[in-house]
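Reviewers of the previous submission asked for a worked example of the structure-prediction workflow described in the proposal, so we include one complete record here. The input consisted solely of the amino acid sequence. No template or homolog information was supplied to the procedure at any stage.
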Amino acid sequence: MQYSSNTYSSNGNSMIPRTAGFARTMGSRIVSFYDIRMINYSYKCNAPCNGLPNTAKCLNGGAPNSKNC
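From that input alone, the workflow returned the following structure tokens.
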């Protein structure tokens, strides 16, 4: 969650995301999937599934449910 791309600017964008796909998530009042994912990885909330046999591997940037390995 953060300010919109043109907050505190008088002449355009003050922030430009490196990946264009993230432009829509800027300025949202709702926590995005990527916000939650970053928090989970920072606090190692994904750790319960790490190292378990038969743990499914997610494709296309997906994330496993660490509460249901």
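The chain has one domain: 1-50. We consider this example representative of the routine output the project will generate in years two and three.
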